[in-house]
Amino acid sequence: MEKSIIIDYNYKNLNIDKNYDKVLVITDENVYKHQFNDFIKSINHEFVELFIIRSGEISKSISVYEKIIEFCIKVNITRKSVVVALGGGVVGDLAGFVASTYMRGIDLIQIPTTLLSQVDSSVGGKTGINIGNIKNIIGTFYQPKITYINVNSLKTLNDDEYLSGMGEVIKYAFIYDYDFIDYIIKNSENIWGRDETVLFEIVKKCTDIKWDIVSQDEKESGLRKILNLGHTFGHGIEKLCNLSHGFAVNIGMNMAFMIALDKELIDTAYYEKFIYLSNLLGLPTKFKIDNHEKVLEIMKSDKKNSFSKINLVIPTGKGKVDIFNNINEEEISNVIKRCINA
To answer: pTM here?
Structure first.
């Protein structure tokens, strides 16, 4: 794999090869409204096709995928064309899956426009669509030719969309780089103010960490699994409670930290630092639900499980985690209940 990540302050240096016969841009309604005009001025290509999807997880479906493939055929997208994913994680996952499967694979450019997709989902080559409550159960590993990140695109997001991405940001600190936590705390006011220099450094740090991990384990057979801290818990919460991905992951990380504390893998001070950082950035650590057992049911169907055992990423020390498959259902159910707001 070759690292091709460009971090910038605008789209002016985005150059799409003229040798592509067509550019298919896949985006969603919100990104089209707020960012498409700036983007389209920069790509300087004569033949551009556009497909706009509805915003949200509802578009990561077989039916939407099929409509895009039919559109590709209709407008004569060929093996010499390129798919551009302009948007957040939903657009990136869906467009990536289209690129990886259309005509057995055509080139892909990821242009993430949310903090969550800039620091996480646009890097590493995962694509996917959902079936029912199960996220990304159909998908591929497919590396983009380029991931082009414009940090100033984050200024068009509402507060919840923006802060949701911080759930993934702090994940990187807790799995791989403890010193990064102090950088985030020190610059919390600039993060709230969306300072472009601080955002550049945050995105660079997270993408560097992810690339280091992915380059060692592209297909998630070992090390890459640590990137799932909070995700096995979080996916159920995200779907059942209609929460954003980053907020759900942060609640899931709280559960993982609780298990680690219960098992004396970490001390109270480390757990309290996680809670302090979450509060500092406006990230939730609890949620509301009527039946906690539904979360456990979705966790049991997680694609990362094996041999009917739930695989969980659990903190084991400062900036360190490990993968456990021996946490019993009673322990899991207990921390789920403790994270429910009365």
So the answer is: 0.92
Give the Cα separation of 284 and 306 in Å (integer): 29
Angle at the Cα of 304 from the Cα atoms of 113 and 330, rounded to 5 degrees? 115
* Strand 129-131 relative to strand 134-138, pairing: antiparallel
**pLDDT, mean over the chain:** 93
On whether the CB atoms of residues 339 and 254 are closer than 8 A, the answer is yes
Q: CA 143: distance to chain centroid?
A: 15
Closest by CA to 105, choosing from 155, 141, 129, 54, is 141
What's the confidence (pLDDT) of residue 156? 92
Question: What does the chain come to in residues?
Answer: 342
Quote the CA–CA distance of 63 and 188 in Å, as a whole number.
Answer: 41
Q: In this structure, what token pair is assigned to residue 313?
A: 């990423």
Question: Following DSSP, what letter does each residue of 46-93 receive, concatenated?
Answer: S-EEEEEE-SSGGGSSHHHHHHHHHHHHHTT--TT-EEEEEESHHHHH
Q: Tell me if 112 sits within 8 A of 118, measured CB to CB.
A: yes
Give pLDDT tens digits for 72-94: 999 999 999 999 999 999 999 99
C-alpha–C-alpha distance, residues 334 and 55, integer Å: 34
